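# step 3/5: fold
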Amino acid sequence: MRLAVCRSLALAALAALPAACGGGDDRAARPSAAPADSSVSVVDDAGRRVTLAHPARRIIALVPAVTETVIALGAGDRLVARTDYDRGAAVERLPSVGGGLDPSVETIVSLRPDVVLGWETSGRTELRDRLIALGIAVFAVKTEDTTDVFRSIRNLGALTARRRTADSLAAAIRGELDAVRASVADRPHPSVFFLVWNDPPMTAGPRTFVSHVIEVAGGRNVFADQAALWPNVSLEEIVRRQPDFLVVPVGEQGAVRMEALRTAPGWRELRAVREGRMVSVPAQVVNQPGPHLAEAARAMRDAIHPAPRGR
């Protein structure tokens, strides 16, 4: 379960797209685009060149954030399956292949995908190798930091022949992130502890998309000195550092989780907890390194800068 927390952090939820990021088929919008039957060749995040005979028409994404990106590119109708962790109207009627790291290979094969979009997991190539041996193209995707998010948008735009939509989506996200950053530029930057897991405590390291979201939102990651992506830290060290805010990503059981922390030994020693600066953010938004990155930054900003501000 902790591995899933580190990789995905939460279940995906479909959110509305900016109008600039939608649109129809890129071939109609840009006559110079490659024909529908032209091959596409893109280097994935494992450093492998993946070549398809034509832009992907049947797609299985094993990463919830990547599923969201495919939908954001206007290619949601090409998804032929989902994982148990995908949610939203765009995927609810699709068959599930199981977990993202341990899907049913038999189900995947039966759905005849043009490409499977899977985790880039260093040292864990068994699933990828098995699918490739069965004649199924696999495109590996990293989801660690915001650079990964934008590269994924670009690569998926190429795989689906929606480069123009991908460019528009990336530009819109960058613009919205800049707007969030500007809205708190003249405010103090409080220290933030982001709670990934509480037993044992786990947080976001400085090279993660979560840490970048905190920075854009006008905060400072109190564990920005850690080398690991998702480090375990001692409760004693959290208490010693006394972050200004304890940020808890919450879902359906959010109120229960936060109430438990308020009375738990160690956690109740934090001034942020005693003084009402334990705040929640929606897990389904903040925990997904995908096209709703700016929405995550706004949610984080509103949590750690609750005073009125210009938008």
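# step 4/5: annotate
The two ends are 38 Å apart (CA to CA).
# step 5/5: archive (pending)
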